[in-house]
Amino acid sequence: MPGKLKQKSFVSLTGGFFLLLALSVIHLTQGQADYTISELLTGVWTEGRIQDIVTSLRLPRLVIGMIAGGALAVSGAVLQTLTNNPLASPGTLGINAGAFFFVVISSIFFPGALGDFPFITALLGAVLSSVLVVGLAGKAMEPVRVALTGMIISLLFSSLTGALQLLFENETNGLFLWGSGTLVQLNWEGVQFAAPVVLMLFVGALLLAKPMDILSLGEDIASSLGQNVQAVKLIAWGVAIILSAAVVSVVGPIGFIGLMAPHIVRMMGIRGHLQVFIHSFLWGSVMLIGADVLGRLIQPGQEVPVGAMTALVGGPWLLYLAWKTAKSLKRGDRQVGGTTKPIRLSVLTPILIAIIAVVMILALSFNGAAWNFAWLEPAVWNFRVPRVLTSFIVGVMLAITGVILQGVLRNPLADASVLGVTSMAGAGAMLLLVIFPAIPAAYLPLGATLGAALALGTILVTAWKNNFQPMLVALMGIAISAFGSAATQVFVVKAKLAVASALVWLSGSTYAKGWDDVQFALLLFALFIWPAIYITRSLDTLTFGDDVAAGLGLDIRSTRVWALVIGVAISTAAVSIVGTIGFIGLVAPHIARRLVGFRHLPLMLSSGLIGGLLLVAADFIGRILIAPKDIPSGLIVALIGTPYLLYLLRKMK
So where does this one cross the membrane (predicted)? Predict the structure, then answer.
């Protein structure tokens, strides 16, 4: 090792060690049982209250934090080399979300297995997520595609997990906090399980360091040097996945540590996988313990999920990494697809209207137990009719948003969820509840609007100089979405909201909508539909690529700004009415594009009708599936749209 590298390594290890030591002392003094640092240093050595608290509760929490932080950091470092993607980590690739989903399934249907084999269930979910990401992202592992695929997989498993938590509230009671990532330990069992597993895999990672140094030169060069590339990659994937699963099974899904720690280590000048793994383990521990300390400083005496705290810090970091990554990539100008034999609108529109009419009649007439065609009765007219109409209008708005954003970003996976608009809108609404706990629910749209405006402003500021490069905007959206989700988790805890009610709003619900909501939805729709129609001609020009569009006289930057503003405004209007509903803006435009082609005016009309149909159907299914209970429409939409979305990701190879 050269002298300069030795010096950097010494500074990193020494600085990290003393910082971890200082944070550990602070960490051991935090909690409801209050005592000072001096009392800790003197009282921990003798039997009594302080020693009991430290050894039974706080020390296990501290140790598991160090182990989990180190494991996630090493896992992230391995994944970044394997995928050749600086944005890779167990969180961004959906590995954590898949592991948590399987833990939730196990707790509901196989409670004995969860108690006896939590690691196995988490491992199965982590493996499934990894297989999906690798299979859908393609062999090239192009960074933006991998990041978007990971986000979609995370969104899929998060939606499924949310649905299960609402359907089986008693069985999953207590999993909300754990599902956000928490280091709370009531004994040493978690440490006793995780420590040997992580230690063994950490040693395995160190043994893989040299082969991964060779692999990082490129697969062709590694093969020419005699390396069995497939074996190295398979073993490395196994190490990364098992490390993540071990962590999730004990402390829940904690994101961003695996993303940030390896980058910080490399920024310190550490090179070579052996050194990167060692330093990443140390700094991952530092970061996770630091996040836990910060969380308990923000809300003393109350548990703030450490996973939410790492995401609050990691969101801006991902924003920076996304900006750097997108700048180094070529601009993508491929078309987002469409049929070469479009169906005429004069033929398609009556068919869609007929299907919508049938679904609406079903939705208005059946309550899950009995049929009632007397729609003018007060119970139906005042509750069910406005609910169905609101669902249709909002579905149309979400689908139009998807058309605009997919067109302007040249990205068939774009919608308000990918841009982070729905996530930040949810965070804004929750923040309003934190500041004004007694505020009526009717004012939640104000907070949602502010959150969505912040998301849009962040995108405009960061992407302006790069002429709103589609890849850059998409990656910005991933970072903003992660930040918004983390902020929402913190606000839910801080506002002391009932978990079920918070999940319902955040999952998107058309429950209890009245005629005032119909009027409000119609007003917003009438306000935004004309700008949306006006922008379609410019979006048609953009389909030929930026160079051709500029040659035809289109102001590319101005078009992208206005399209983003219009798309975000329509999305925000929809969120303000029914909460955060995803997938409609992803699925409806794709179905329409396969029917009418990629010209945006007919695409917008047909997408709107399909979006309205999807949300009305989702609302109807959610209302009757476990009547008299309701399942939020957003979760039903996710369950309906997921198979199509997975098929779409596969076809996009």
Answer: 62-82, 94-113, 119-137, 144-168, 234-264, 276-298, 304-323, 343-368, 388-409, 416-436, 442-464, 471-491, 520-536, 561-589, 601-625, 631-649
**Considering only CA atoms, which of 206, 558, 533 is closest in space to residue 400?**
533
Is 452:424 a contact under the CB 8 Å cutoff? yes
Q: Is 306 exposed, middle or buried (0-12, 13-18, 19+ CB in 10 A)?
A: buried
Residue 608 has a pLDDT of 92
- Under the banding of pLDDT at 50, 70 and 90, the label for residue 139 is low
Name the burial class of residue 271, with classes exposed (0-12), middle (13-18) and buried (19+) by CB atoms within 10 angstroms of its CB.
middle
CA atoms within 13 A on the CB side of 577: 32
Of 195-204, 339-348, 624-633, 644-653, the range with the lowest mean pLDDT is 644-653
Residue 140 burial (10 A CB sphere; 0-12, 13-18, 19+): exposed
472, 429, 486, 478: which is closest to 452 by C-alpha?
A: 429
Cα 302 from Cα 184, distance rounded (Å): 12
The DSSP code for 342 is P
The DSSP letter of residue 272 is S
Q: CA of 5: how far to CAs of 249, 276, 638, in Å?
A: 37, 12, 49
CA distances from 26 to 20, 281, 290, 376 (A): 10, 20, 10, 65
Predicted TM-score (pTM) of the model is 0.77
